[in-house]
Amino acid sequence: MNHPILSRIPILGKFVDERFLDHRLRSTSMAAIAGCLAAVGIFEYRLIFQHIVSWDLLSVVSAMAAIKVGMMLWFGFTD
Hints:
The protein has 4 helices and no strands. It is mostly helical and 79 residues long. It has one domain.
């Protein structure tokens, strides 16, 4: 039980272990990637078939990509 969250909140240690936190991290990451791919798919569909540029979807995809790359750089430099 070396995880900082588990050591600060003792009751969580009884119900949550490091595998649970790792699974939550990976599933959240996969959900974000799937959401980004879905937004790209909808953007491309509207652009190719309906000839409409969906600026809202483009901004969502851009924000998700910027956050992902930013966090990868942050963790790469601080880890």
